[in-house]
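Sequence, please.
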């Protein structure tokens, strides 16, 4: 667990090649803009191991770049029980991911496990729709739209805690 005023955030989806690396890249960029990059560390993982070691899906990389975010350097890995000892916020892209993470969550975890979109749309149980099997790039742009909004919300929340 982190020192005071230092936070570790883990973004989690199913494959760790579409939504969660996009969330990592966008949230890191927004932390930079907010001057919080040294206070908040970000990583991403998948509940499944299928794509371990792979770069983000080319469609995610292309759309992210079109929107101003570089994510091509990221590599997929599977989320583990140990992650709960290192991250203060474990944020699921959808409700299936959240249910899978609840199975991994140790009883001593003191951090926040929840849906990432709660930071933009509280109490709505909103998920980032999985774009993997969709045609064209519309679904990938929607991922960016939703993640940008949730990133702003999470930054507001962290700013409150950092200045407390
Ligand atoms: P992600 O999308 O969870 O946003 O990375 C997916 C990537 C791969 C698969 C499903 C979803 N797949 O079935 O391989």
């Amino acid at each position: 667990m982190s020192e005071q005023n230092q936070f570790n955030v883990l973004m989690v989806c199913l494959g760790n090649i579409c939504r969660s690396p996009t969330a990592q890249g966008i949230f890191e960029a927004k932390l930079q803009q907010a001057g919080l990059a040294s206070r908040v560390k970000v990583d991403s993982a998948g509940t499944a191991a299928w794509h371990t070691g792979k770069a983000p899906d080319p469609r995610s990389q292309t759309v992210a770049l079109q929107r101003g975010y570089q994510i091509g350097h990221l590599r997929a890995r599977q989320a583990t029980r140990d992650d709960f000892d290192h991250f203060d916020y474990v944020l699921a892209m959808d409700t299936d991911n959240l249910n899978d993470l609840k199975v991994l969550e140790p009883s001593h975890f003191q951090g926040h496990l929840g849906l990432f979109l709660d930071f933009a749309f509280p109490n709505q149980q909103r998920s980032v729709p999985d774009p993997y099997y969709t045609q064209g790039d519309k679904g990938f742009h929607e991922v960016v739209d939703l993640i940008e909004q949730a990133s702003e919300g999470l930054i507001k929340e962290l700013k409150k805690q950092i200045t407390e």
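Residues 13-19, 50, 130, 132 surround 4-nitrophenyl phosphate (CB under 6 Å).
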